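seq as requested:
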Amino acid sequence: MTHLYQILTEKVRHWRDNGYTCEQFPAINEILQFQTIDESGNNLRFLRPPQFRALEVYWYLRLIEKTPHIYSLYKANYQKKADIIKALGIPQKAFEEADYEVDPLLERIKTDDQFVKDFKLEALRETLTLEYPSYILALAMGAGKTILVGAIIASEFAMALEYPTTSDALQDAFVENALVFAPGKTIIESLRELAEIPYDKVLPPRFFKGFAASVKLTFTPDGAKDIPVIRNSNFNIIVTNTEKIRIQKPTVRASKGWTQLQLLEKEKQLSEDANLRLQTIASLPHLAVFSDEAHHTYGQAMGEDLKKVRKTVDYLHHNSPNLICVVNTTGTPYYQKQPLKDVVTWYGLSEGIKDRILKDVSGNILAYSFDAGNADKFIGEVVRDFFAEYADVALPNGAPAKLAIYFPQTDDLEELRPAIEAALILAGQSPTLVLKNDSTSSKQEVEAFNRLNDPLSPHRVILLVNKGTEGWNCPSLFACALARKLKNSNNFVLQAATRCLREIPGNNTKARIYLSMDNRAVLDKQLQETYGETLDDLGHAGGETLTFTLRVRKVNPPPLVIEQILRTVTRVGAIHESPLSLNMPTATKGQSMILERFAITKQQATAAVLQQIGASVTLETEPDCEDIYTLAAKLSEWYRIELWPLFAELQRLYGEAGDVPLAHIAELARQIEQQVCAYEVKETKVEKALALIKPEGFTKEETVDGEVIYTAEIRVPKSNNHLILDRQNSAFGHHYTPYNFDSNAEKSFFADQLLPHIEVHPDQIEDIYFTGGLTDTGKTDFFVEYKDDKGHWRNYFPDFIIRLKGKGKKPGKCLIVEIKNAQWEATINDELKNGKAVSKEGRKAMAMTRWIDLNPERLKYQIIFADDALPNDEIAKAKAFVTEGHQ
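struct tokens:
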């Protein structure tokens, strides 16, 4: 059975291929297209692939499907009774009890508690009984759920600013306020990332300016009675704990000496505070609710906790001016081996490992069989093995690899700690590497735990009891060990065992998980219940991509100075040199209706019994109109002309209180354009300096030695690992390292052909640059703009620049080289010859030749068509440029 999220994935793919078409709200195309930095759609500007995929699905549901209730999606996509029953996970026996009728069955699920309990349909009941749209975006840990929430909110606010709401119709409204909540203080701390998201990399510049000027981010402070936002205001993001806003009777622990009356008064005060916060949130118009780590209340805890949170959201639905939708994010989209039915996008652990968003763990899940009395020997073996494999492993920032060992009780930790310290000594390590974090930890130990991400942190073996699971982000953690059998509630084993999977750019070292056989069985079960995956799936999920960190070596190479055409549009003559004069458009009749009269008579030749009597009559209706006050204001704004002269002219045509037929407006606008919109385009040649490297587009870091470096992360398929080339022992090339070529021909052109030739002629050449690997306009200015077949502007990044040394103040000439697959040779040559490009590659080449035509003394362009072996004659041309370029 194909799941709903799989169907939506396919529909979104078609929507993407059609350019995110949305006639009513075309700005969404601009926002979604901005997420990629080239037309391939594979290179993302900021978001990770699963985040972008979820963002696409969200906007497809909002704009194309018009924010439907989740059950409406099931009805639309599963037409047959058997299909929808299977898709909803309803047992056949339950369907049989409802006489094989869908509607009575669903009604029974909503109302019959015993029926739901017998067939374990609690999760489905929650889906069916919600009165508002609610979706689950299921992304595995480390995929970036918080950033996804921020991207959705930013794009919603941008759309709300672009299309202000003019009615109460929710299907045409965009989110203007967002409530983000999560359970517990640990997780809400991770939500502080919302304040650090570079929203200028999520929104195009024109949208970002309005968003940045409007958004107000509020984290609810502890102890505050109300939320510090203005009621009925817009563009608020409120981040809070679930506990601070859910409707429930608060639990109050009486202080010593309290009377019963004091206790009741305190409970009353806390209830009033919670209600006050809710009332403030409920006052905010066009609200969306975002529930982070939603499985706490939506998946594995379908009891009282769920009811409390649902009661809160229901309150907002009934008391808010407009609750548009609820978005739940979670990494655990399963409930007792059944996927939650609200899931609209899903990205699992094994998928994250394949995409290298999570550390690879294939072949590195180790399970041990031992007697309970030999736990010290197990833990000693774990420490020995860890330092044998990871002693010298560190992240690119220098943070050494760490091991976390989880214990069921503090007593277990204290009992086994001597064995851990002894194993460290045998491994040649100091016992001071150990740090514990449990309920008895001192303030210094807690602070040291919070500093584990610091590369200078001295601790490498972390001992944990009921700590270090959900919400703990420690990328330098490379291994987890589960000592003795842990509790199996609330996915603790799963959360503990997979903590070491969080990845960081530039790391290609696998993680490792150490388990007892008891914990192995529990982990396998929890994987199946929460991800639909087995431990075997996880163990065989190897990364299909590799991550590399690019480092800029030549921070400020000389810019490429070229001449370009600057086009400016200027008004011809002064505005309103003569008074505006409008003529009455041709009279327009209203829409007409045809009236025909019929009588019931017996027909002789046909079976019809209705016979028309008399001739048809045309009835004219009054045309739709707009009052001249409103029209004058609109036309004045559209054409930037004075309001009152225009208003007087419309009064002359239509009378003082007249109405203007809508059919006249286009003609009136045309007349105004003819009189006031006289423009001309002027072309001027200007020199422009193109930066080959823009340091501000890279991540600025400081090494332990205090050196400032600029880096960027890239991911490449494992099959392309041989195309990564580190810096050669040469003064030329590698303005960043490593170079990330796309083909053997590119790599050979640089490393085998041109670089050795340039080293023989060093006095001729300033440098050679591989530029085809940087396809982000935030990192380089060297790209050529061209229009694709849909009329959208795209960027083309040529592969190489070979720059000669200049003479005096005159810059040296540059050869721009493009390596193309041989299959394109005939197409591109024909299109260049005919002067009309149709193919994408032809459009790129045509745009580049326009540059050359404008800069014949500065630029030369060569396309080399090759699969693997480079044509000797083309290589000879490039080498001749090096040796003969000055001649």
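The chain has 30 helices and 33 strands.
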